[in-house]
Amino acid sequence: xxxxxxxxxxxxxxxxxxxxxxxxxxxxxxxxxxxxxxxxxxxxxxxxxxxxxxxxxxxxxxxxxxxxxxxxxxxxxxxxxxxxxxxxxxxxxxxxxxxxxxxxxxxxxxxxxxxxxxxxxxxxxxxxxxxxxxxxxxxxxxxxxxxxxxxxxxxxxxx
Amino acid sequence: xxxxxxxxxxxxxxxxxxxxxxxxxxxxxxxxxxxxxxxxxxxxxxxxxxxxxxxxxxxxxxxxxxxxxxxxxxxxxxxxxxxxxxxxxxxxxxxxxxxxxxxxxxxxxxxxxxxxxxxxxxxxxxxxxxxxxxxxxxxxxxxxxxxxxxxxxxxxxxxxxxxxxxxxxxxxxxxxxxxxxxxxxxxxxxxxxxxxxxxxxxxxxxxxxxxxxxxxxxxxxxxxxxxxxxxxxxxxxxxxxxxxxxxxxxxxxxxxxxxxxxxxxxxxxxxxxxxxxxxxxxxxxxxxxxxxxxxxxxxxxxxxxxxxxxxxxxxxxxxxxxxxxxxxxxxxxxxxxxxxxxxxxxxxxxxxxxxxxxxxxxxxxxxxxxxxxxxxxxxxxxxxxxxxxxxxxxxxxxxxxxxxxxxxxxxxxxxxxxxxxxxxxxxxxxxxxxxxxxxxxxxxxxxxxxxxxxxxxxxxxxxxxxxxxxxxxxxxxxxxxxxxxxxxxxxxxxxxxxxxxxxxxxxxxxxxxxxxxxxxxxxxxxxxxxxxxxxxxxxxxxxxxxxxxxxxxxxxxxxxxxxxxxxxxxxxxxxxxxxxxxxxxxxxxxxxxxxxxxxxxxxxxxxxxxxxxxxxxxxxxxxxxxxxxxxxxxxxxxxxxxxxxxxxxxxxxxxxxxxxxxxxxxxxxxxxxxxxxxxxxxxxxxxxxxxxxxxxxxxxxxxxxxxxxxxxxxxxxxxxxxxxxxxxxxxxxxxxxxxxxxxxxxxxxxxxxxxxxxxxxxxxxxxxxxxxxxxxxxxxx
Lengths: 159, 781
What we know:
The complex is a heterodimer. Chain A is of the alpha+beta class.
């Protein structure tokens, strides 16, 4: 069974005919060819597929595209300014070496954006708790934690 | 003049693309007329395949083809080769059973590939795979290496399930030293089986072009040239020049992406059958049963000491579970990369190690971050700490009494350490960890009804495995050199081609720092290219912490040739003798004069050779180098771990973790620190959270990230780390390698701390809350 889905992705309207079972992440990666959102597992554990849906961080592997009908989606491709300048959270990851292979990074940044809005000056413990749903195998989290603390302060509670 | 770049904390060149979603991983590659593959995998650990019915699958929507082992056999697709021949204690070659890409009549582990479906979409391929009917005759399975002997044979050529029994050292001399020892410390333990779990799952996308009879394979690989060599020469019988292998951005490897895998072979072969690009991307559940696992040793280890705590001899007997088939480098991990490290940082004069390598009905085991060296370090450092406790010696003091202090040092287990300063890393770590304040912290923990323990690990590792001829004499079937090329463009900017592969290590930055620093150019003037056999002259790839020590040296050697040729050109341009030309940070000068030519002017002259010694010198400025190291490098360091255990729940918290490493010269401290952090987290994972469990029928019960616990942010602390620099003596950069140290030293440090906290001799990894709680209950009873 195919269905039509329409949503706003990174500020632009996007729609397609997809099979009803199509996951939001599949729609983003395959239909829209926005391949910055990654798939690292099949049990909603790793968080590499995290995007913002109506401003909230969600795992795009754990809902079907239909559930995002009419929603406002932001992926990693929509985070930097239109002129390419990095967002303060992205900049903080770069300055603090918060990434190595880069595969978990988009999910980390998207999750951090949502977290930082409500935690403009987080403690290390709060940041570590916020990363419960995002796995990284490269960094040992040390520099991701530093990045998010710095990025959150730079954001001042606003995405 | 630019500031020195070697030793500088340069932010990474690769970060912008990763931070903006512009990274290009294998699954991101979508080719015109793309098709998709799904593998049907064995649900049984051991079974005969009596019949496979593919009719319904072939008729399913979108299906282009279904292939089984019979199709590959008919097409004469060979088995996967093993890259290292181990010779056993009787001088006989190890048993090398066939490793077919798709099962041939029998399956030997859960997850083995039985058939492949190729369809228009990945979902259609998966749907159709479910329609394949396989009639299995289930056989008894064995998953425990200790029970392999006497279990149902996996392979006809190994009726006792033994691959080899191998030994290193003088057994008679070791036995004699044990007979005379005043104290013997003995431990028996399991080095737990781990699943690497790079967050990017493996992926392969192959295309074939009738226009040139050539193939292109995009694959998540740590060594694309090795992948190509193994696949073309040994499996598919294709001419190497007709196969391009590209390893684009790769999302972590940790060893698991070194190997040639059956899926890579199958999609490459199928791309020609269908004349369509064929892509397969693993899901995580498949990864758990099909990516090569790591470790899985059962060991009895003994240390003989005199009454002063001086080590007299070590005796080690290990059963290494290789899984169902020999993965690419499986055979050398529990032998060449394990037993040779058992001297550690110590002067133990006699060591004997025997390794019994067995086949079981489990996923093949191969190198995982550290590869043999974490297992060796665990043996040595658990023994040393336990011996100190038994002799009532300070664990720091017993180490100092036995440290190697003079270099070069020939160990009794074949390696010759070129340099080191173990006291330097030890004393720095003791200060940094505030070891003198431990008793006070222990009391504070007790006041909270918590147990606190401290543990040490003084590890050594051998990186940049080499030289090739010695490795060859020990059974390596590949060279272990690296290749590099420097292409200077007419305007004086530089592209560097390296056979090393970066999958998180930051080579695009570190290697550029080396080149820009050596040539005196801006960092932006240097570009690093890697991971494509059509661009790179050759490459042995990235594993064993070899990239900078071996790949970096190849680049330096090519740079030397560039400067040498540049001096000739500069001499001509300035009408001076070549012997009078000096190169100093971007400028060729005539010694003792103010005459000079910038690097860019010389490069331009090489490509626009109007005023150029064409009678003596070729135009252009492009040089290659291959570098084969004369020895391993030997990074070493001291790790100090403090744990705090909740008596009521058994939960263990890493209260602090201090690591002081000696990696030789450090090019980019920021990147090195990141490598250590990641290694430590994996080492802590092995000690506390990670471990494979199979049930009696051979099902992997820890087969998802919900069941197999890789550390989360809350499971690890912020680390206290530092480095000391004792430069490697046999490469021009003085570098040793830093990629694996954390995973090598951490498990022993954590378990030494935990056994100290609990007051027990040993407990099993992973020391989960349940394991710790049970240990406490047993102790109280």
